[in-house]
Design a protein that fits this description.
Elements lengths: L1 H15 L4 H8 L2 H10 L22 H12 L9 E3 L4 H16 L3 E4 L5 E5 L8 E7 L2 E5 L5 H17 L7 E6 L12 H6 L3 H7 L10 H7 L19 E9 L4 H5 L3 E7 L1 E10 L3 E2 L11 H17 L7 E10 L5 E2 L2 E10 L2 H21 L3 E10 L3 E2 L2 H13 L4 E6 L4 H5 L5 E6 L15 H19 L2
Parallel strand pairs: 4-6, 4-7, 7-17, 8-16
Antiparallel strand pairs: 1-5, 2-3, 3-6, 8-15, 8-17, 9-13, 9-14, 10-12, 11-13
Helix pairs in contact: 4-15, 6-15, 11-12, 13-15
Length: about 475
């Protein structure tokens, strides 16, 4: 009896994870299977809403345990609940790392870490020499934020692997979960630090040799205190070759209200907008707010205000709703109510999924800054592009696999772009990439009210699991 059960399990594995419903339908009519059903007395197939054998509709997600793990991870925080503060290489960050590594090991994954603390949990496939399929996200958290940003993509990925293991699935390509170091820029001012390095950023590797935080602690010393780097030369050892993975997927809360407002459980990300960051400084002539008459002023503050409005104007005139711009910092010197500003400082963020269109906006902002300075008789002392990352587009084949998975799970989906940074933006430089969004309460993120329901997380895990299964068999 035992050999027969094993044979049935192998047969079910082949049937259940066929990538094409038509193939499933053909297998359903297979006379050999009918004979086996008659012999065993048990049906191999159960009817589904699609009219063919499709056991993916009953993938078993342990949502209760996932919620419990997220709650437990949130206790590793430097701020009181319900907020979460988890900063790179601090004690709470190290504890969170140990927590996740332990869960990976309990799930039977082989765990390794690189020199900056990117953590990898691997489930070997039947052909481990092939490039693996990867998934993952981050668990660091900006001060007084929420418990779901990034975390759903790490613990949810782990649950997706457990779902596949419970189903009896056997991957061909290995599956690997990546816990990225420092997606948030909180400590060293560098977003997506771990994934940037995996993508092979020589510039960043060199800069990190002399980078310090707000307490003048060097990146090298901070990493060393957490058990990682001992020598700056080790930073470049984390670089991955292009093609190291056959695909990369990231599950994430939307961080926006669209899915919740439209009642759609799954967002299929087609592109990630990348920001360009600009620093601008004007220098004018200060003076007493009452004594200097208006025609004689060289007000650096008004120059900054006018440029802020120009940013909005240029963004709106781009012709695309996907172009956005924000003046997030505007500082005046000396900052007294009765003193004309002699200096002003702006920091501008502009984003788009179209790099050329975004760069055109930057050019127009620069032209406006020059014109405003001349007209207002102030000096444009700095116009510096700090960062200008290229946007990333999801791979068509991965988009198709995600859409197919949602349909097979009888879930609706919406094609959408991500306007926020994600590690996927940089993993796209290593391998084909895709992202799955799930709804979050009122689109809240980076605040304690951030929330994703157990149902929505379970849906995301199912789509991730099925997509990973499809990609691993390619």
């Amino acid at each position: 009896m035992l050999p027969l059960l094993r044979f049935l399990a192998l047969l079910l594995h082949f049937i259940f994870f066929s990538s094409f419903p038509s193939a499933l339908a053909e297998n359903y009519e297979d006379p050999t299977i009918k004979t086996m059903e008659a012999f065993s007395g048990y049906p191999v197939h159960e009817p589904s809403s699609f009219g063919v054998s499709n056991p993916v509709t009953s993938l078993s997600v342990d949502a209760e345990n996932l919620v419990k793990q997220i709650e437990e991870l949130s206790t590793f925080s430097d701020s009181p609940a319900p907020s979460v503060t988890r900063i790179l290489y601090t004690e709470k960050d190290v504890l969170a790392r140990s927590f996740v590594k332990n869960l990976m090991e309990l799930s039977g994954l082989s765990v390794r870490e690189d020199a900056v603390g990117n953590i990898f949990g691997r489930w070997d496939g039947s052909e481990p020499e092939l490039p693996a399929v990867a998934t993952g996200s981050h668990v660091d958290a900006i001060p007084f934020s929420g418990k779901y940003d990034g975390v759903v993509g790490v613990l949810g990925a782990l649950e997706a692997v457990n779902v596949l293991k419970r189903s009896g699935f056997r991957p061909k390509r290995s599956l690997e979960i990546i816990f990225f170091t420092s997606e948030e820029p909180t400590r060293f001012g560098i977003s997506c630090l771990g994934s940037r390095l995996l993508a092979g950023s020589d510039t960043l590797a060199k800069a990190l040799e002399t980078t310090v935080d707000g307490q003048n602690i060097s990146f090298i010393d901070a990493a060393s205190s957490a058990g990682y780097l001992t020598d700056p030369a080790q930073i470049s050892t984390v670089f991955l070759k292009k093609g190291s993975y056959s695909a990369f997927l990231e599950l994430h809360i939307e961080q926006g209200p669209i899915l919740e407002e439209e009642g759609i459980p799954i967002g299929v990300v087609t592109a990630i907008a990348a920001p360009a960051s600009i620093k601008v400084e004007f220098e004018g002539t200060g003076g007493h707010a009452g004594a200097v008459l208006m025609p004689y002023r060289n007000d650096a503050g008004l120059a900054a205000a006018e440029l802020a409005l120009a940013v909005e104007r240029h963004v709106l005139s781009s012709g695309s709703i996907d172009t956005v711009g924000t003046v997030g910092i505007l500082e005046l010197h000396p900052g007294a109510i009765n003193s004309i500003p002699s200096k002003s400082h702006l920091e501008i963020d502009t984003r788009d999924i179209d790099e050329e269109r975004r760069n055109t906006v930057i050019k127009k902002i620069h032209e406006s800054a020059i014109e405003i300075a001349q007209r207002r008789r102030v000096k444009l002392s700095e116009f510096k592009i700090i960062n200008q990352d290229p946007p990333a587009h999801s791979e068509r084949a991965i988009i198709e696999a995600m859409v197919s998975a949602t349909k097979e799970l009888n879930l609706t989906n919406k094609l959408m772009i991500s306007r926020a940074y994600h590690d996927s933006l940089f993993m796209a430089r290593v391998s084909p990439m895709g992202m799955i969004f799930i709804p979050c309460y009122k689109g809240y993120s980076h605040k304690p009210e951030e929330f994703a329901s157990a149902k929505d997380m379970a849906n995301g895990v199912k789509v991730l699991a099925l997509t990973l299964a499809k990609l691993s068999l390619q």
